Each structure stands twice: as C-alpha cells, then as structure tokens.
Amino acid sequence: MEKTSMEKITNVDVCFGCAWGDEGKGKIVAQLAKSGKYNFVCRWAGGNNAGHTVYVNGNKYKTHLIPSGVFYGIPSIIGKGCVVNKEAFFSEIAYLKENGFDTSLVKISPKTHVVHTKHIEDDKKNYGGQGSTKRGIAPCYRDKYARVGSQVKDFMEEFREFIWDGKLFGNVLCEGAQGMWLDINFGNYPYVTSSTTLPYGACSLGFPPQLISKIYGACKIYDTRVGTDTDFPETLLENKDLLQLAKNGGEYGVSTGRMRKTNWLNLDKLVKSVQISGTTDLIVSKIDILRNFGIFKLYFQDTQMEFKSIDEMCLFMKLKLEETCGDFLRNIYFSGDPETVVGLK
Ligand code: IMP
Ligand code: MG
C-alpha cells in the first residue's frame, strides 16, 4: 500500500442502508468488491454493532467490524469515524485467519476510538431502554465527543501490525453500517445509533464529496426494525401476517439474534431516504420473500395501499421513485436472491 501512496483517488462509490439496517448491504458490497475494480473497501462509522453476512464460494461468513474487502483480497480500512473493541477486533481477525483469509489486508486508523469494557457495562446498564446492541457504542461515542476517549494510537503495541495512516488512492468503495433512520442526525432520536450512517459520513475517510460517483442505497421490499423505536410499536409483533412475513424472511438480527419488528414498506420514508442521501442506484431486496408470501402492501402518503401482485407493487414503487428522485436516481434493482443482485454494475 505504501509505494503508490502518492497516487490520487480516482473514484469513490458508497453503499449505505436506506432504512434501519439489515437491508442487505453485505450482499451488494461483496458483489461490487468481487468485480476487482476497487483498491480499498472502507468502513466509515459504527463498530461491532453491525452484522454483515457474506457468501464466498458457497460458504456463509459473518463479520461485525471488518469491511468485506478482506474476503476478496482487497485492503480493508476501518476509518477514524468507527469505534473498535479490542477483543471483538482480534476475535474477528482470528476468525478470518482460521478461514484462510489474508488478515494483513486489514488496516485501522490510529484515530479510531476504542470501546472499553466500562463502555459495554455502561451500555448494558443505561441504554437498554433504547434497545441498543450492548456493544458499548453510545458510551464510546459519548467519550469521543466529550474529548475524553482513547484512540487506537494509545494502544500502539497491540494494534501495531494493523495501524495505517496512509492516503487512499485509486478506486475506493465505502461500506455503510446501520441505515438512514438510525443516523444520529436524521433518525428518530434517541432511537438511533451514535454515528453518521449516511453517505455524508463517508467523507470522514479522507476525500472530498465531489469524488463520489455512485451511491448504492440498500433497502427491502418491507421494513424491519431491531431494537426499540416508537415508529415500530411492539404491537407489530401481534399482527399475524407481519409476524409470519418476519419468519419467512428470516428476520433475526445477525449481531443480537433478536426478532426484527416487521412492517409494510413505508414508501414516503424511502423517498426521503433516497433524496437526502443522493442515492443513484437503489437495490430493493427480498422480492422473493414477499412474492411467495402473497400479500402486497405498502404505505404511501400515510395511507396503506394493497396491490394484486408483486409486479404491480414494484411498478408503483418505480413510478413514484422516478417522479420524486428522477434527477439523480439512475437505476432501481429489484432483487430476489440472497447472494446476488442480477445486473448490478
Ligand atoms: P447501538 O448502535 O448498539 O447503540 O444501538 C442503537 C440502535 O440501533 C438500536 O435500536 C439497535 O438495535 C440499532 N442497531 C445498531 N446496529 C444495527 C444494525 O447493524 N442493524 C440494525 N439495527 C442496528
Ligand atoms: Mg447488517
């Protein structure tokens, strides 16, 4: 990585979640990384509260912290906007090694903040009401912003082989964690995470916004929420259609194993999410799940609508998204395959 550090960044693409996390970002990032055109895959926010599922050569892998580039031989950077728990980091490194991946590709900024045991204990004790993942995320960011936190560079010896303070170059892919409505500024505060989950946050990796060309927005054909949120009342778990849909869709958290509260897609929120993020390519996943389920509903202009078929519902979504976001939204992919997005470029 060092030799060519004088080279410029030629292009940046960003993949982020348009909803509440769990939108299938892992599958999109993996497919893009596989194309071989990126020099780096970077995470800009969050910690091991995220959970990414990636399929490599037919095997399923799960990571929480380390960007998916490592699965495809690409340098994978944990940026300074992230937070890192030492135990979680080194156990993920061990897991990757055991599975034959080259962990020398994993790099972390000296400015990344460190999640300590006291943060995790504080999270368990005081943030349960917000349904946090109990990974110490909020207390760690609290200390960061109060300017009393500690950074990776304070643990030089331990992180030595992974620390990287170099400049990005070439073609960069940024991998989001969580999603639009968990963003600290845009979400339903305090039912949010403590970082910037939108593409604007990716610039903290060290590039100007003009270099971003594609913004891949990930969502599902229905909405899910893990954790407490007044926009997702517990009564959703009593709706037998929605409960069945959650079961069919395997809607259990990768990080926590909790069942996700499920609701019909809120198209008004999706439009806002696409508009605010500047999504150029929208990937709507789990089409297969809803098609087989056979009930096709969404909320539009605060009203529930029902369609006769999945095709009719997707067409309606496409028309409304084109009407409202057509200036910059170039492609909409409807994906019904857990491993690939057909035709994604
Ligand atoms: P924290 O990020 O652990 O503080 O949790 C704050 C909120 O964000 C909780 O409601 C979590 O359930 C939610 N959350 C955090 N990370 C993820 C994720 O990767 N997917 C979905 N929800 C998440
Ligand atoms: Mg996830």
What does this structure look like?
The protein is α/β, with parallel strands linked by helices. Helix content is 27%, strand content 23%. The chain has helices at 25-34, 86-98, 117-126, 137-145, 156-159, 199-202, 240-248, 267-277, 287-293, 310-325; strands at 9-17, 40-43, 52-56, 59-63, 76-78, 83-85, 106-108, 113-115, 170-175, 212-220, 222-225, 261-266, 281-285, 296-300, 303-307, 331-334. The strands form four sheets. Strands 7-5-2-9-1-10-13-16 form an eight-stranded parallel beta sheet, with helices on both faces. A four-stranded mixed beta sheet has the order 11-12-14-15. Strand 14 (296-300) and strand 15 (303-307) form a beta hairpin. Helix 3 crosses helix 4 (137-145) and helix 8 (267-277) packs across helix 10 (310-325). The model has no long low-confidence stretch (mean pLDDT 95). The structure holds inosinic acid and magnesium ion.
